Structures are given as C-alpha cells and as structure tokens.
Q: What sequence folds into this?
C-alpha cells in the first residue's frame, strides 16, 4: 500500500495530462489568491511604506542578507515565533508534512503518472509520511491547541471562517489517504473518495483569498521586518531591554479563559 | 489610549484574551488572531500590552484629542521582573522608564490554598490566617497593653 503510486493507478481512469493540468490550475489559484489577498488588505503596501519611512528617517542601515538568513532558518524553517512549544511542534509537523506531501504529489503526477513509468518506492512512501504528519499536527491543533478551544473553552466542533484553511487541509489529506487506501484494496467506493478528495483540494487551494493560507507568505515578511527593526535599533519603538540580570524566572502558564 | 493588535505579529496564543479585565480581547473569527472587539470599552490598563509575548499589541489615542505621531510602548520582561516604557513625543523627544514589578522569584509566594486549613480554635483568635508566622514576627503581634491605653475622660 505504502509503496504504490496512487496517481499511476488513477491514470487508468483519468489521463495524466488532466491530472497535471489540475495541479497547474491549483498553483495558479494559490498565486492569484495570494495576490488578491495582498492587494485587498494592502499588506505589501503597508510593509513597503514602513520600509520607506524607516529609510527616510535616516535609520542605520543593516546587513540584510544575514537577517534574511536568520529569518529563513529561525522563523520559517524552525517556526521560531511560537511561544507555545506544543503549537510549535504541531506547526512543524503540519508544515513539513505539507511540503513533503505537495512535492511528492507533484513528482508522482508529473514524472511517474502511469504504470508504464514506474518510479522509486520512496516517493509514495514519502507521500504517505507527509500526509500522516499533516494529520498528526493538524488534528492535534484542531482538537487541543486552537486558542478558541484551549483558551476560551469553545467546542472543537464550533466552526468559523478561520477554520477554512485547516479544515480544508485536513479534509483534503484525510480523503487523499482514504482514497489511496481504498484504491489499493479495490474498494467500490474508490471513485467516491476520489471525488471528495478533489472537492476538498479545490476548496483548499481555491479559497486562499478568504482563508489564512496566505499566512505562509506574509508571516515571513513580518518576521523579517521585526528582525530588521531590532538590528537597526528602532525596535518598532519598543523600549530597550532592561539593564538587569535575569533572576526572577518565569511563571507564565497557558491561557485558560474560562 | 485603547489597544489594537498588529495582526502580522500576533500568533493567536490567547494570553491577551486571558488577561483582559474588560473581556474585550477576542480571537478573530477570520484569521484566528487577537483583536480588540470594542476599543470604547477599553480600560487602557495595558495588561494585554504587557502580557503579549510577541509585543504585537500597541495603543493609540483617539485622534480628536491625542494628535497622531506619538508613541507609547511597553516591554514586560518577566525573567527580569521589569516593565520598561518608551514615550516618543511628536517633537522628537523621547523618555525611557524602567520599573521593577517583583522582589521575589515567580512562584515563590504561596497562594491561600497552599496553606493548611485553619483549626477551629484559630477562628477565635484576633490574628488573621497564618499570622504571626506569615508576617515573620516572633512573639506575637505588637500591640498596646491595656495599661498603655488612655482612660477615657468623662
């Protein structure tokens, strides 16, 4: 099961060109949705206006390449912004799972799309691992870590617009794995699972403008801006750190607003 | 000056929701980030500003009586037990303040429930719970003796 390429088996019913067109269409939807989101919210305008304001004030210029590298390594690759360790682990699981899942899907669809072009077993195995990582991190977040559930005591089944991204992601990946399993078992439900998988995936990538999918683009930009402000001394107008030894420890506990 | 949240800096952890005494910091239903649902009802206590681990919460005055261009920002450093303020005036002046907020380590002060329950005879005593040990006074509380009291004049 784990070593069989589900898209190669699917090619008996759907031509590889159709699958590839669909993947390209999803990429276009993500790009268009992100651009719409940026224009609609004016986030890029705000980012660059801040940048120009800082330069016009004669703020000391800093080495941007090393700051970009720090942002990439600490804030992006290691999700360094999270102050809650559980959220950070869940985010890392979901993020790396998503990257694995998307890359392996693209490789299997574009390179090994038919049984006539069999690929190494590692791709389907990585696809399953990526999907399971998304499910582990995503369901953990959904049921136990979300602020409105963990901190405000709301039911995990109370759905709102902020859940559009995580729910469509979980639905897409859950249905993908169920479809792949059903296909290897020769289940009569295979096509039904596949249809649901396509619907959920289309919602995931087609709803970028309305979901928080675009956070993977604007959060690194915000983290970069924050690091630049610390490096050039402006610190977003925050006071400098107190000149005192750290000696009182910490008693911060997780919020429980109920 | 009521608070507002920089949505790009907030990570939606919920600390401000937890601490707001006015219960007006909520998690946004679209982006799952914190926001002030009713700035008019803000007490301007700065609790959320100080509690935010990302320093994502800021304040701004009502534009009709506090002209824009100034800045008041707070930094709470828990491990150092300090609160620092930086005030920037519109004419470019800046003022910095640092205040201590504790003299003992976090968690070193016991809560009421961590003490043993009072015995029945303790309720008849003049001292409050855990006195005089909690006050670190040996030999009982200092008090005037009866012979030190002035006699009431008729």
A:
């Amino acid at each position: 099961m784990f070593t069989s390429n589900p898209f190669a088996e699917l090619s008996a019913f759907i031509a590889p060109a159709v699958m590839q067109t669909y993947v390209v269409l999803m990429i276009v939807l993500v790009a268009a949705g992100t651009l719409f989101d940026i224009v609609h919210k004016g986030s890029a305008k705000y980012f660059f206006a801040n940048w120009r304001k800082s330069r016009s004030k004669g703020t000391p210029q800093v080495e941007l390449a090393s700051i970009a590298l720090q942002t990439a390594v600490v804030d992006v690759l290691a999700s360094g912004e999270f102050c809650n360790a559980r959220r950070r682990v869940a985010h890392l699981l979901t993020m790396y799972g998503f990257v694995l899942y998307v890359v392996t899907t693209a490789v299997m669809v574009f390179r090994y799309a038919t049984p006539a072009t069999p690929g190494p077993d590692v791709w389907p195995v990585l696809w399953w691992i990526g999907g399971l990582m998304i499910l582990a991190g995503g369901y953990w977040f959904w049921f136990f870590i979300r602020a409105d559930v963990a901190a405000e005591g709301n039911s995990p089944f109370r759905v709102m617009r902020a859940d559009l991204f995580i729910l469509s992601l979980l639905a897409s990946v859950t249905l993908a794995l169920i479809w792949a399993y059903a296909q290897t078992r020769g289940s009569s439900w295979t096509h039904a699972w596949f249809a649901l998988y396509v619907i959920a995936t289309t919602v995931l990538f087609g709803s970028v403008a309305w979901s928080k999918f675009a956070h993977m683009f604007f959060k690194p930009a915000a983290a970069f801006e924050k690091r630049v402000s610390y490096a050039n001394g402006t610190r977003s107008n925050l006071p400098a750190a107190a000149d005192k030894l750290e000696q009182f420890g910490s008693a911060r506990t997780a919020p429980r607003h109920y | 000056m009521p608070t507002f949240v920089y949505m790009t800096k907030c990570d939606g952890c919920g600390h401000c929701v937890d601490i707001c005494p006015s219960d007006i910091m909520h998690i946004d239903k679209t982006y799952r980030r914190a926001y002030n649902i009713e700035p008019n009802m803000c007490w301007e206590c700065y609790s959320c500003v100080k509690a935010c681990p990302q320093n994502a919460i800021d304040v701004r005055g009502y534009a009709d009586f506090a002209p824009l261009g100034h800045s008041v920002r707070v930094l709470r450093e828990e491990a150092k037990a300090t609160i620092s303020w930086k005030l920037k005036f519109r004419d470019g002046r800046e003022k910095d303040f640092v205040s201590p907020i504790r003299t003992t380590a976090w968690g070193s002060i016991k809560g009421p429930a961590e003490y043993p329950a009072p015995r029945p005879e303790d309720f008849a005593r003049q001292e409050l719970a855990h006195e005089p040990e909690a006050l670190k006074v040996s030999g009982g509380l200092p008090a005037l003796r009866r012979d030190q009291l002035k006699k009431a004049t008729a």
